[in-house]
Amino acid sequence: MANIRDIAKMAGVSVTTVSRVINNHPYVTEEKREAVQEAMNSVDYQVNRTAVNLSQGSSKLIGVVVPFAKHPYFGLLIEGITDQAAEHQYHVLLIQTKYNLDREQEALDMLKHKQIDGLIICSHQIELSVIESYSRYGKIVVCENAADNQNVASVFVDHYQSFNNALNYLHQKNYKRIGYCIGRNSGSNSYFRHKAYQDFLGQHPQQSFIFDNNYYFEDGQTIVEQISHLKSKPDALLVTSDVVAAGILTACNHAGTKVPDDLAIIGFDNQPIAKMMGITTFEIPHTTMGVKLFQQVSNQSSAVQHEQLPITLIERNTVGKR
Amino acid sequence: MANIRDIAKMAGVSVTTVSRVINNHPYVTEEKREAVQEAMNSVDYQVNRTAVNLSQGSSKLIGVVVPFAKHPYFGLLIEGITDQAAEHQYHVLLIQTKYNLDREQEALDMLKHKQIDGLIICSHQIELSVIESYSRYGKIVVCENAADNQNVASVFVDHYQSFNNALNYLHQKNYKRIGYCIGRNSGSNSYFRHKAYQDFLGQHPQQSFIFDNNYYFEDGQTIVEQISHLKSKPDALLVTSDVVAAGILTACNHAGTKVPDDLAIIGFDNQPIAKMMGITTFEIPHTTMGVKLFQQVSNQSSAVQHEQLPITLIERNTVGKR
To answer: Which of A5, A270, B299, B304 has minimal CB crowding within 10 Å?
Structure first.
């Protein structure tokens, strides 16, 4: 294959001139530019774009860490991020971790080794302090409240406040035995949610009901089965994913459990499935979140920003008045 | 920042030796290797892994083209591909196109410009002949029947056969007015499905019912509304996505349309939502498909392979006997 020296020889110019043409440098005469283009075309010379980006100190790649690519919540974030990235001539390098620490470490190493220009971490198992130690190699943005961190940027919603609002809303509607369903019970977002629950139980003593490890529609069935075996059952559930809430509602319909009379359900996200099935839910602006995440990671300034996004309760049919 | 020449000077070795240590070349004495490591550590020298990969003629990146990252069907493919990629020290560069021709062209250009080693195209709008013309720059694999193509590899299921089977199955159950719902009505997979439908109508004349542009759960409601306005209605629907089938079933339940008495539904994919809601469906082995797609794209041999995967009818409750 022809290399840059061959092209220079064919065009009768210096290697520097060829390099300038490839990099769209202004100081090249039109005549020389044409000669170089002609030489490149005649041998179908392909510019190695990675090498060009590299010589300009940039990979034009943003790493995006997600635990599961197929989960609709992360799907929406990925969609928002890739849309923005494409508009700004960046591409997205997807790192699916399944919360495996080695995979998360790999993503951090890619930043260290300059394979990516920046890193968006949608959810993680590794400690934030470890993540922070890599911030000197490039911009890192997380999807959780990291507002007191000087080195890692964040875009987040206030999960303490949203849980607190939801719990008090159910309390006002006279629900007395409120539980919650969550993905994993570790991680910063889960911490704030659990804290809100604990604080609420401190003010309004009741039995605690926590169901964890729920991500998908079919997990709703498992939750309803678990509840059927409980002697004393919850009368309301906060469910941190609409897809799981839809699964719970469907399983309740099959099992003859009346929603909202026997069991109230509040979802999170406001996914289309929640609208369709009439599920009361907290709307989280995922697309906006994806856009903001990209803006922060691609931000050239060295300032680390923290941005909180508002969430809104959408009242539908899965909460009544007792 | 220290460069490779600085490290060589500090370690008292040649630049070649430093390069060999970075690239794990065997011909370096233990003594020199240690001296180089020490020098690198002392200035926190970070290997630019992209530059190393590049010097070895590989980006270690596989491009994956999907129209929508948030759609569960593509989510499953992405999950299968990224799992395999991670096992083989590759990473996935995600290109979300929304069927935009410029975005699809961009993906092909990335292969041409060596930013990626290979390209998996899960679905596309651009013509296969255009895709084929880029196959000289690297391996390309598509998710459709391209068995007569010499240059583009493929992993696919037989959509003609599956539609044909489903139509005859419904015919045997005495359904007489069968329609189908699909994502887009262009593309190779849609072509084979439509051909099976036309051939079936040739053998068993009936009115034709085709609903296109359906991707998500909420599209099911639109379909049921459209049907409610029809004077003569279909009595059975093939639905090319379980998620849409679930939306149709839910909308039927709300509207009082009895499934399977008034309307039979057959989905495709065998997503968890189909199992949960008792939807009769064709199981498509997505995870296996993702694995095979990666195997083909990373296959070092120059042979272009075509692999057809089997699909299976899973009988549940949305088809009866009339």
So the answer is: A5
